[in-house]
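Anyone up for a design puzzle?
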């Protein structure tokens, strides 16, 4: 039960972090979509994965 609570808390925190980032990044056109893939990546691999997603966004688009 503790592991489920920890995972759920981490997912909710990730959603808030991505939403906050998107509020700031709209001015620079670097919005990362909030979908199950990005939420899962940032939840499992941590905050540095957000920087990797931004870097991929810059390099690809």
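Challenge accepted. My sequence:
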């Amino acid at each position: 039960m503790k592991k489920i609570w920890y995972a759920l808390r981490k997912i909710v925190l990730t959603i808030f972090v991505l939403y906050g980032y998107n509020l700031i990044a709209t001015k620079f056109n670097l919005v990362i979509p909030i979908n199950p893939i990005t939420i899962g990546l940032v939840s499992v691999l941590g905050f540095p994965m957000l920087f990797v997603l931004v870097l991929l966004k810059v390099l690809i688009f």
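A detail worth pointing out: Helices lie at 2-25, 36-45, 48-60.
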